[in-house]
Amino acid sequence: MDLKTVSTHHVPVRYLEGGSGPALVFLHGAGGVTADDPLLAELAKTHHVYAPLIPGYGDSEECPEIRDMLDFTLHTWDVVAALGLTDPVLVGHSMGGMIAAEMAAIQPHDVSRLALICPAGLWDDEHPIADLFATLPFEMPALLFHDAVAGAAMLTAGRNVTDPNFLQTYLVNNARQLGMAGRILFPIPERGLQQRMYRITAKTVIVWGDSDRLIPPVYAHGFKKGIAGASLVSIPEAGHMVTLEKPPLVAEAVRGLG
Amino acid sequence: MKFTWFNLMPWPYLPDDFREKNRSVWVDIDQKLFDPAKSHEVYNTYMDLLEYADTLGFDGVGVNEHHQNGYGIMPSPNIIAAGLARRTKDAAIVVLGNSIALYNPPVRVAEEFAMLDCISGGRLVAGFPVGTSMDTNYCYGQIPSLTREKYNEAHDLIIKAWTTREPFAFNGRYNKLRHVNIWPRPIQEPRPPVHIPGGGSVETYDFCIDNTYSYSYLSFSGYLRAQALMNGYWKRVEERGVDKSPYRAGFAQTILVADTDEEAERLYSEHVSYFYNRCLHVYPGFADAPGYRTIKTIQTGALSQYAPPTGGYTQLTWKELTEQGHVIAGSPETVRQRMEDLIKGLNVGNIFCLMHVGNMPADKCMYSTKLFAEKVMPKLRNMFPDWEDDNRFWTQPLKSRVTSGSLPKQAPTSAELAATYGVEA
């Protein structure tokens, strides 16, 4: 995947691009996405993949003007337009799934294929979603992965945690990335999608890891119920980071959209 | 010098094994540990102590705002301040402060502070903290990376509401108000003095300088550790080319006085330990919501004071806590010397004296407070003679003020009223 830049109304946007085939836009979760992401590699085997970074993620410029759900939704449509894409396959993971669902609800005629991978956006009092913003780094793997040990290794790969500058860099990245994510996820990751979901007309697949402990799989039913004709693909032995734990199975579910 | 007697109002009944059995004193503290019936006495004793400080000649009595917090049972400092406004005579009512990003609309703060200023005869010092991440984000649900923007708007609205003499429309991002016209408004002109509690956010330095507000560093780790932060503030003051009046700054310090250093340790060490070991037990996941601190501030290395030092506070003994300056404690002479070091070293004119600590009982607190007021405070009065007349950062009360209880003992009779008002023909 190559890291490139495209101009939009608000800010220049960084995006990863690779592969060939029908256009596919991938929207990352609150943890961001990098060029070596295994799901992007998998999707790039059959699709021309574009994975834009939300402003503030990675090395991209921050955007103070993007404050609420509508801002995020319209901005991401601006990115799709700036990339010159028409009706790409729209795929989103977690927070990215929330944004993708909102995009499909707001401009239903511009999205015909939608894949939501354990998306945020709904809230059920009976099954509260864990507070990602009060979770310490060492608690993350157990929350995010089916296999916490392997997950911890993936999260720390390539990072020198003994470097004295590591903590400051980590805090700055967190402030930039989760600070931005917090605008639609804090303190409750719900901004009214429930009452807009009915507008989605895209052929939709919902993908969920069976052992997702951040957004429990019960939420899949809320999305299935809210989006007419949506199908559900459950993936065993995978947590919230099903994108890292089972990328081939996720990609297969996306390809099923045609 | 301005000495404000300050009470955080800690809950004094946290169990011995609080730290082991609970993950946090703040945000998700166990409901069962609060006993409303016991709080009746706790609140009234704490308010009595604040009133006592007024009778001893402290310049101010101070209260602050915390939520869902075992060491600060004052979610609404204005309620305590209202009681103090009635029951104290001369001390400034220092509300440090109201977390103005939390109020919808913030006009409410402009109104309540105006009421406090009116009831107290112009004795209000108004504090506007951004608020801790625990209070603002985790308890009150404000979005971390938008908190400062909302705070700034709330500040502008309050100041405008205090100083504008006709109704105005306010089209903010977070507040849409067609008719702002607060009634009452404060006695003090053009507004009550404003103090801004800060924890090292560099943006806050400029904000204070721009508006002639006093910058207050409310730390629990004492004056020695505060030096670097306050140096940063004074450096900024110098860069901006404004005067270095010590009243541009305030500092909170735990202070405990006894006859001798030994007596201080004997009387107070368990209460200090209660505060530093139990009350500051904050779950690190609540210390600093991502986006709450600006990038610039993180890059200066200012971490939340609620991020505990390696190993935690439990390993700190009385000796370490006093030697490292977390706590200034000892005989009047010991305390005087150390207070002089603090005042000169940090160049601070406003001292927020944390004279009640942890689970300290009222009798010990009175003893320490009286010794400080009589044997230490007078010797520290004249630290900054050059700035004696600087009244930009303190109250300007009415010269003639009423106090509570001014009604006659009995209701008048009909005849007395007739004598006063005449009889209608």
Description of the structure:
The complex is a heterodimer of chains A (258) and B (425). By secondary structure, chain A is an alpha/beta fold. The mean pLDDT of chain A is 96. Chain A is built from nine helices and eight strands. Chain A has an eight-stranded mixed beta sheet, sandwiched between helices. The two termini of chain A are 23 Å apart. Chain A has a single domain, classed as Rossmann fold. The longest helix of chain A is centred in the C-terminal third of the chain and has 20 residues, at 166-185. With 425 residues, chain B is an alpha/beta fold. Helix content of chain B is 41%, strand content 12%. Chain B has 14 helices and eleven strands. Chain B has helices at residues 18-21, 36-55, 77-87, 107-120, 133-139, 147-163, 202-211, 222-239, 261-279, 295-299, 318-323, 332-346, 362-380, 414-421; strands at 2-6, 60-63, 92-95, 124-127, 168-171, 176-180, 194-198, 214-217, 249-257, 327-330, 350-354. In chain B, strand 3, helix 4 (107-120) and strand 4 (124-127) form a beta-alpha-beta unit. In chain B, helix 2 (36-55) packs parallel to helix 13 (362-380), helix 3 packs parallel to helix 4 (107-120) and helix 12 (332-346) crosses helix 13 (362-380). Chain B is globular and about 80 Å long. In chain B, 48% of the residues are buried. The mean pLDDT of chain B is 94. At the A-B interface, helix 6 of A face helix 10 of B.
